[in-house]
Write a structure and sequence with these properties.
mainly beta, single chain, 28 strands, Jelly Rolls, about 325 residues
């Protein structure tokens, strides 16, 4: 980010959901573009996306003439949980030069990080402790999220990626910063008949996927897969042992959408343990909501659900079902 010969200028971030009881660390890099001039730099915290609202100074440095990057850091807490904004500020000190700021990072260094909505739009975001999401986590293509503690999905995790033919694409796989520990597993898709182009995967965790039939005793995770181009693929669905809800021995079914008929997928295998239990099917060629449940289901009403409030809008109707034995994955075929 560079200010082009401006006497002073602000850049404000998007809204950040910050919590009491958590210590945050700010880190950023700054420099002058030319050593013949000098710049002042500062970062502020405020409650609105305007310079007048930037009332809490986090880091300030004056008379910077070096044209190589220096690193500024600051730690802070907030007195009340809510939406905050960072304000990045640069001003000319001497000469008509340019101020440069890069690699702005905000990380939580203590406490339990609980958010209603989290959007990782670009770059790298690191959480030093646990991450709990109550509603929506969206990870944009090309963005990176790492977590050192545990990950809890009590709402919706969402990611869109390009899925090429004959390669396994992992959705919503979250690791620690060293990439040495897996913290969360989502879905893996391996096409066998062609590129699927852009694919969106939405996972609802820690919840049942409807309010009728025998849904309350199913695996407490729901899946929706929406490809740009449907291709035949092997799909592996992950869930945590705490979401299994007493279900085991997975086999995979899909909902035909005609006469409330459920059909079994082929090439069914299962495995994993702990945070990475999974059920997998080969030859999946139609995509719609999926869910995990026991035995062959009877006709039920399919409903969307979220951790705190019902999901509005059309398109995602998921279910979990219970019968006498065996764990199954179901898909409702759309169209």
């Amino acid at each position: 980010m560079r200010w082009n010969d401006s006497p002073s200028a602000w850049l404000h971030t998007a809204a950040l959901s910050l919590q009491t009881g958590v210590t945050y660390e700010l880190e950023y890099k700054y420099r002058s573009l030319f050593s013949s001039s000098s710049q002042d730099f500062a970062v502020y915290l405020g409650t609105a996306q305007s310079s007048a609202s930037m009332t809490t100074p986090l880091h300030q440095v004056a008379n910077v003439s070096a044209n190589s990057f220096a690193t500024g850091t600051a730690t802070f807490t907030v007195s009340s949980s809510g939406q905050y904004y960072l304000g990045l500020y640069s001003a000319q000190n001497t000469g008509a030069g340019y101020g440069v700021i890069d690699d702005v990072i905000l990380r939580a260094t203590s406490g339990r990080n609980q958010f209603y909505d989290v959007q990782i739009a670009q770059g790298s975001t690191a959480f030093a402790h646990d991450l709990v999401v109550l509603n929506d986590l969206t990870i944009a293509e090309g963005a990176d999220l790492t977590v050192e503690g545990a990950v809890a999905n009590n709402g919706r995790f969402r990611q869109t990626l390009a899925v090429p033919n004959s390669a396994t694409t992992a959705f919503l796989r979250i690791q620690n910063a060293a990439a040495a520990e897996d913290k969360y597993f989502g879905v893996e898709i391996t096409p066998t008949s062609g590129d699927m182009e852009s694919v969106e995967v939405v996972i609802r965790g820690g919840q049942t996927c409807g309010a009728s039939g025998n849904l309350s005793d199913g695996v407490q995770r729901c899946y929706d897969i929406t490809p740009t181009t449907a291709q035949t693929a092997t799909v592996r669905f992950y869930y945590r042992d705490v979401e299994a809800n007493g279900n085991s021995a997975p086999a995979i079914y899909h909902y035909s959408g005609s006469g409330s008929v459920w059909e079994m997928e082929s090439g069914i295998t299962h495995g994993g343990s702990g945070e990475g239990l999974w059920a997998q099917a080969t030859g999946i060629d139609a995509y719609s909501p999926f869910a995990l449940a026991d035995a062959t289901p009877t006709a039920v009403t399919l409903l969307s659900s979220a951790a705190t409030t019902p999901v509005s809008g059309a398109g995602v109707l998921l279910l979990l079902l219970l019968s006498l034995s065996g764990l199954y994955i179901y898909r409702r075929r759309v169209g």
